[in-house]
Amino acid sequence: MSQEISLSVGESSLCTKSPALALQVLQHLCPDVVRQLPGQFVGGVEVAQAESSMAIGSRFEGCVIFARHWVEGVEYALIDLGPAAEIEGAWGRRDQEVATNHGDGLANTSAMAEAGSDLAKKALEAGAYIPSAVECHLLMYAKQIGLVTDLREDITYWTSSQYSAYGAYSLDFEGGWQNRNDKLYERPVRLVRRIPIIR
Question: CA separation (Å) from 82 to 3, 41, 56, 112, 139?
Fold first, then answer.
């Protein structure tokens, strides 16, 4: 479950469960404070020091930055955690609608966990999330240009994007095919992290 974040500046205050919103407000009202926090967490969201350090193909804590992706007005560097961080399991319950979308893997993973998905809970406990359908396609592009070279091609990976109450999307990293599978199927997940980019 998301933790509430409280920000107070002068007579104004904000309470939210969205780390990205809290970071945006903090960046706007107190940019000097945010600049003093590289590599730390602000409301559960890690802060990158500068845009220049988040170039696609560069490395962050030993992991490759494979894409940059906008979610709700915030640009993020997407980080592939590699094969050692892969987990496997069923997406979730087969007869349950979960509020997911095609673009925001972190929001999707949180919604999955709240709906009881053990796979999503494991991802969040690892400080990561299950990439959305769009984020998996960005991983596929990173594979095509040689940034990510160790994705399995013998099985499809779960995305965090639901198709229906009974199925969710998966992606085949051999050819980039997006599939729909029963949520009860056991599939691997390529865990990722994201860091908001400070300009």
Answer: 28, 22, 16, 22, 11
Sheet with 74-80, edge to edge strand ranges:
59-60, 63-71, 74-80, 192-196
Percent helix, strand, coil in the chain, to 5, is: 25, 35, 40
What are the structure tokens assigned to 97, written together? 């609608």
Q: Which of 135, 172, 150, 138 is nearest to 86 (CA)?
A: 150
pLDDT tens for 23-58 read: 666 666 666 555 544 343 444 455 544 555 788 999
Cα torsion 117, 114, 47, 37: sign: negative
Residue from 176, 156, 175 nearest 167 by CA:
156
